[in-house]
Amino acid sequence: MRRLLNGIYEGAAWLAGLFMIGILVFVLWSIIIRQMGTNFPGLDAYAGYSMAAAGFLALASTFRKNEHIRVTLVLAALKPRARHYLNLFTLVVAIVLSGALAWFSIKLVMDSYSYHDLSTGEDATPLWIPQLGMAMGCVLFCIAIVDEFISSIKKGHSRTEEEPVSMQT
Fold first, then answer.
1. Where does the record place the Tripartite ATP-independent periplasmic transporters DctQ component domain (predicted)?
2. How far apart are CA 134 and CA 15, in angstroms?
3. CA-based angle 152:156:161, to the nearest 5?
4. Rounded to whole angstroms, what are the CA distances from 138 to 52, 75, 101?
5. 164 near 156, Cβ under 8 Å?
6. Distance (Å, rounded) from C-alpha 11 to C-alpha 57?
7. Looking at residue 169, what is its pLDDT?
8. Is the dihedral of CA 13, 93, 165, 162 positive or negative?
9. Which residue in 18, 48, 125, 137 has the fewest CB atoms around it within 10 Å?
10. CA 142 to CA 138: how far, in whole Å?
C-alpha cells in the first residue's frame, strides 16, 4: 500500500510539473502570436487553468516530502509527548479542512458538468475539465494527510518529529 500511495503522490507531482510546462508553453505561444498580430482565443485562460492544476496536484507530494511551510516555534518548545499530541491534533484539523475542500471541489466539478458551465472567454471551455485538476489535487492532499495521521499513530511519531514517543502513560 505504501508503494502504491507514494507512486500516486509522485505521479501527481509529475503531472503538476507537466502543467507547469504547459503554463510556459501557453504564455510563450500567446506572446509569439501577439507579436505576429493575431490572436488565439483562450491561451490566457489555459495558462491559468494549468497554474491551478499544477498548484493543487503538487500538494500531496509536497506534504509527504515534508516541504510545506510549518511554524514550529510552539512545537519546538514542547516535550516530545506533548509535541506528538499537538501534531496529531493539527493533522485531525487538516483532515477536516482538506476533506471539506476535496468534497466541495468534487461537487463543483459535478455541478459544472451537470449545468454545462462554460468559461466566459472566447474559447468556451467546459469548466469541469480544468476543475478536475483542482478536485484531484484536493482529494490526493486529503488522502496524504490521512495517510500521515495513520502513520503517526502507528509509529508513535510523525515524519516531522525527531524521536518516537512512548504511548504508555
1. 23-154
2. 12
3. 70
4. 11, 26, 6
5. yes
6. 9
7. 43
8. positive
9. 18
10. 6
Q: Which SS3 state, helix, strand or coil, does residue 118 take?
A: strand
Are 23 and 50 within 8 A, CB to CB? yes
The type of residue at 3 is R
Read off the pLDDT of residues 99-137 as tens digits, 9 standing for 90 and up: 999 999 999 999 999 999 999 878 889 999 999 999 999
pLDDT at 7 over 70: yes
Closest Cα partner for 132 from 142, 123, 140, 124?
140
Domain residue limits, the chain: 2-155
If you count them, how many residues does the chain have? 169
> Is pTM, for the whole model, over 0.90?
no
Q: Are 59 and 141 in contact (CB under 8 A)?
A: yes
Asked whether 20 and 54 are in contact (CB, 8 A), the reply is yes
